[in-house]
Each structure stands twice: as structure tokens, then as C-alpha cells.
Amino acid sequence: MTGPRLPDGFAVQVDRRVRVLGEGAALLGGSPTRLLKLAPAAQTMLNGGRLEVHDAVSAQLARTLLDATVAHPRPLSGPSHRDVTVVVPVRDNISGVRRLVSVLRGLRVVIVDDGSATPVRESDFEGMHCDVRILRHARSKGPAAARNTGLAVCDSDFVAFLDSDVVPRKGWLEALLGHFCDPAVALVAPRIVALEPSDSIVARYEAVRSSLDLGLREAPVVPFGTVSYVPSAAIICRRRALLDVGGFDESLVSGEDVDLCWRLNESGARLRYEPIAMVAHDHRTELRKWFSRKSFYGGSAAPLAIRHPGKTAPLVISGWTLVVWVLVAIGSGVGYLGSAAVAAFTGRRLAKSLSSVAPEPMEVAVVAAHGLWAAALQLASAICRHYWPIALIAAVVSQRCRRVVVVAAVLDGVFDWITRSGYADEDTKRVGVLTYLLLKRLDDIAYGLGLWTGVVRERHAGALKPQIRT
Q1: What is the DSSP string of 20-75?
Q2: Which of 142, 171, 316, 358 has its CA 20 to 30 A from that of 375?
Q3: Strand pairing partners for 274?
């Protein structure tokens, strides 16, 4: 694991969810999960899970911990806001872009009017204390093209892309810029939250389950990780890195942000998700438009699968773990006995793989149980979201399959409701569990509909292919 040297004073903190095994001999965790063995010298450098860079050796260890995704950065103060240009793509949303520019005081702003029926004019932004420049496409070319047009006229080291329906909250820029102290970081994204509380059922659901809200926990942005991409509704990029990968792919109707993240990953750049920084988004809350948007997101999976084979897998699971849950689903005494036997065998394999760090038997049992539970949640989610047309047919023709689908739907929905109960602001009224289950199922149906439509349109089933690992 290599990368540009981290500066002195830069610190990293081991994620609190990472398990310390063998009295500090190894760290188990990260996203995706991995085992990182530590040399005795490295163990002594970690003080309470924290490491501060002060020489080449500590810089290399900090880089290793970051790249293994078991630690998070605690950077120094970052670049100045004077090093940032904000690019705003807009089409037929003058009120939104005015609202946005009104909070970008002192920043350089490039607005790209992507073929609005009523052109955006400089006079629309008089007295807003921003250096505003307006570019215009005579006809709409899409948000990716609009962002590229804005990028082309920027000469600052960093470019922030903000959609016209967002409003950054106080301190967002400083929290994001700090990450660029790491010279390997090419892109940083904030958490996207609801703009205003509402009594609408869909709005209350979106406040905790928006596709744009990636949660409360900081994370690296890596395929198959906790955060595998970030939405381009609000991101900051290192301009040079963005130009080196060719900017946004203008041929993509949707998913251009996912594609950009993965191309940056492939180039060796690091990407971060920073939920301390928050940007509010004006969510779609009218049921028909909400359903259509969820389906629109699903339609990006097939084109992305063509460009990035394997990275859109709806399910990434150990073959042995899959066998355990298939046997449980069979439901007979033979199935339960077989699942217990396979689980015991899997536990022994896990213990053998961890033997070099001499874990306690209970540590092995906890790790194995965690893996089985995570796999169950993955399977339940995939059944209800990606494979629901198949699950529906199976439920109609088989009573046993019907039970499995019902259990999966309830497990996935209730666990998701519990997990996301703390996402909403205090002013937002909580959604009841039954209502949440119904909206979650509609959410998944919409996404799956878009996914399968895209698969048929592209004649490529890569977005439906699971990854089963040994």
C-alpha cells in the first residue's frame, strides 16, 4: 500500500468498530472486512488507537491503516476557500440556484445553465456578494456535461460541485477541505440531509432513507465498502485529479457520479465521505415523482456494470455462508442440522485463518456470528430490492419460498427502520414501523423496476450477478 507521504502532524484514528485481536497483534475490520497484522513496532506506535505522523515510518503506518480502511483521518487545517470554485449545473430552477448562491458568500461561482426555458441572467444574483459567472448550453446536454463545462473554465486547485436544489449548512466547506491535507485525496463529499422538516409521510421517510444520505459514519469511498460511491449533488474535487480521469462521463444518463468515483479509485486516488459536513437537499416528496426518481436511480446499474464489471454486484457473500442460509431456508430438520454443521465448519476455517494472532475462542465466535448476521441482512435486502421479480414469482408458486420472502421483507425493513431511526433531525416526526415497511418495499420495487428495465435495455445482466467468494 503506497501513496504520497502524509504531512507531519496529520493523525489517524482506528475505527471504533474494528476488533483488536491477540492483545493488539492484529486489527479485524474495515470496509470490506480484512485482517491487518501489526508488527511489534507498529503496535507501540498506536496510542489508544491513535497515531500522529512525525516521521517517514509513522507516515507509512498511517497510510497503511487508511488504505486498509481500519482507520480514519484526523487532518490538519486544509486549503483556503480562496482555492475553491463552485460549479452549479441548473435547468429551469432559478429559485433554487438563487437560494444556493445566497449562502455562498465570498466564493467564486460558475453557473452552467443547461438549456433552461428562461435563461439564467447575471442580474438574478445582484447583491449576493459572490463572484458569479454564467455559462449557457443552448440545449440541455445533461448534468454531467454541464459540470464538465463549468470545470473547463476553472483555474482553482479545487472545484466544488453543488446542484441547484441544495443548500450547504454552516461549516461545510472547512470540514471538507481539511481532508485535502492528504495529497492522495481527490474527492470529498458531505452528508446530504433533508432541507426542511415536513409532515408528509414520504418526506418523513426521505428524511431518514434518502438515496442521497449515506449515513452518520465517516468512511472511505471504495467499491463494496460501507460507502461505495457519493452523489454528485455535493462534492469537492481536486481539479487536476478530475481532469486526469476525463471529468464526468457525459454519455451516462444517470450514475455519472458512481462512475466518477470508481474511475478515481482505479486511478489510485483516495476518496472520503465526511458526515460532519452537511448539505441540505430539497427532496422529491410527491409520491409519483419520488417513485419515478427511485426507478431512475436503478436504471444506472446496467450501464455501470458494463463500464465496471463486477462492481455493481447486488450481493457479495461467502459461499459457505450462503450455504448456511440456504439450508436454513429449507426449513426441515435436515436443513437445520446441515446449516449447523456448515456453520461449525466455517467457524473452524475462520479460527485457522486467525491462528497466527492467537485469538480467544469467544473472539472467533463473535466474528463468525457477525459474518453470518451480515450475510443474512445482505440476502434479505437483495431478495426484496434487486431480485424481487424472481422472489415474487417464487412466492406465488411455493409456500416455502413465500415464507422466506416474508421473513426477508420483515427482517430487512425492521432492521433498516431501527438502524436509521437516528438519521432525522429532532424537528422531524418519526415514521412508524409499519408505514416505514410499506414505503421501504415501494422504494425497493421502484429501484428494482429501474434495474431490470436497464438490464433489458442494455442486454447485459452484470448488474444482477452476485459475487460468491470462497
Answers
A1: EEGGGTEEEETTTTEEEE--HHHHHH-BTTEEE--SHHHHHHHHHHHHTTSEEEE-
A2: 358
A3: 190
DSSP string, 376-392: HHHHHHHHHHTSHHHHH
Distance CA 285, CA 197 (A): 11
**Omega before 32 cis (within 30°)?**
yes
All three cell numbers of 433: 414501523
Crossing angle (nearest 10°) for helices 201-209 and 433-458: 70
Over residues 47-64, the pLDDT tens digits come to: 778 999 999 999 999 999
Q: Tell me if 267 sits within 8 A of 241, measured CB to CB.
A: yes
Has residue 341 got a pLDDT over 90? no
CB neighbours (10 Å) of residue 184?
Answer: 19
CATH topology classification for 81-285: Spore Coat Polysaccharide Biosynthesis Protein SpsA; Chain A (3.90.550)
- Residue matched to cell numbers 501489526: 38
Q: What gap in Å lies between CA 284 and CA 202, rounded to an integer?
A: 9
For the chain, the structural domain boundaries read 11-74, 81-285, 316-469
